[in-house]
Amino acid sequence: MIKLPIALLTTLLTITNxxxxxxxxxxxxxxxxxxxxxxYEEMLVDSVLLNQAYPEFIQYEQIGQSLLxxxxxxxxxxxxxxxxxxxxxxGQHAREYVAPQVCMALVEYxxxxxxxxxxxxxxxxxxxxxxxMVNPDGICYxxxxxDSIPETEPELRAFVLSRGHxxxxxxxxxxxxxxxxxxxxxxxxxxxxxxxxxxxxxKGYAPMTEPEAQALCDFATNGDFDxxxxxxxxxxxxxxxxxxxxxxxxAKSTQLAYAIAASNxxxxxxxxxxxxxxxxxxxxxxxxxxxxxxTLEFGKNLPPAGQVEAKSIFDRNKEVFAxxxxxx
Length: 328
Ligand SMILES: [Zn+2]
Fold this sequence. Notes:
alpha/beta, binds zinc ion
């Protein structure tokens, strides 16, 4: 199962400049579908199709790879030379795969607006860097089952089967929660009783041991970003900043959270986090990089049951990118 996406992407990534060789296709219907389960493979194909449809506005690059060597992609939306740079990341948690689907639809929504000549100020002065699936192995496992792990990895297969909870799998494929891996008070991460690799909550034996977390960390650290947007699932909630962040950075994060909430009507808890978790990507970017961060928890249904909500989550959050840009 793993061979197809990687072979496919290798082929796709060799298309160095599709815009030069093929006429720009007329986009008559959406490329990113919101109706059914959105797979890693669809994300790869859609990244290429979006680039072909909107070569001026969307490019993509590989920023790392998963434990099972699946490429981790980043899409660039807007002017790559823009001074303002915003990183959007999602798909850290396997079972929350509706968030990557909505995120990809948002990329298409803005690119199609730019192509119609709308929001061109934003297109020119802001570049969004979107990492839609930080945890491809986990997402493939929830959606496709044990066949998503190659037979050449018998120990990994045995481990995953021993833990159960396939549909609720949240960690990466060897049982580390990628959003508890970051070096921001990692030693005090609350694991809710988990003591070893499991389907959720285990932070690992040290910070930054997992290739997916490391790829995201390196990209975030070296990218000179002005702000971070994180999509998770579920709760219709916006978390702002970090419970261990500096007041001025949290104040900016709070301003962004309320600006978003005025549009999508999500709940913004008064505290920076309802339960301080530590070791999250948000904790890292706020405390180590010193930049504002907002974390949106999409939808009301517990993942992976959120598929029926994908369209309504998209509709409710369409303006998020623009709101963050306008309030930065
Ligand atoms: Zn999550």
